[in-house]
Amino acid sequence: MKAVFLLMAQYDARAVIPIEWVALDFFSHLTADTLVRKISAEDIVLPLVRIEDSYRCAKGVALIDLAAYIDRRVEAARKECRQPTGQR
């Protein structure tokens, strides 16, 4: 099953998920501010939605982009698991 449908159910079909929720649910080892910095530095390839041009504006991640990110991570994990030695 595609992640998009699961995320739609989890977040009541919101178009944009607040960055605090994304950090809490999927990057629990990071604060929301650290997640924003990692996304801005392109350490995490996930488009960040800024509601305005202001530094202090609300930030979030589009549900469809979060689903695509999760699907890519799952596929990478499956590919790694299929390798004969289990190593990269």
Provide a descriptive summary of the structure in words.
This protein is globular. By secondary structure, the protein is mainly alpha-helical. The chain has helices at residues 3-10, 19-26, 32-40, 63-82, and strands spanning 16-18, 49-50, 59-62.
Provide the β-strand percentage band: 5-15%
Mean pLDDT: 92
Strand neighbour order, sheet with most strands: 1-3-2
Look at the helices and sheets and give the structural class: mainly alpha
Q: What spatial form do the alpha-carbon principal axes imply?
A: globular
Low-confidence parts: none
Query: Helix share of residues?
Result: 40-55%
How many angstroms separate the termini? 26 Å
Order of helices and strands: HEHHEEH
Biggest β-sheet strands, sense, barrel:
3 strands, antiparallel
Radius of gyration: 14 Å
How many runs of DSSP E, i.e. beta strands? Answer: 3
Number of helices: 4
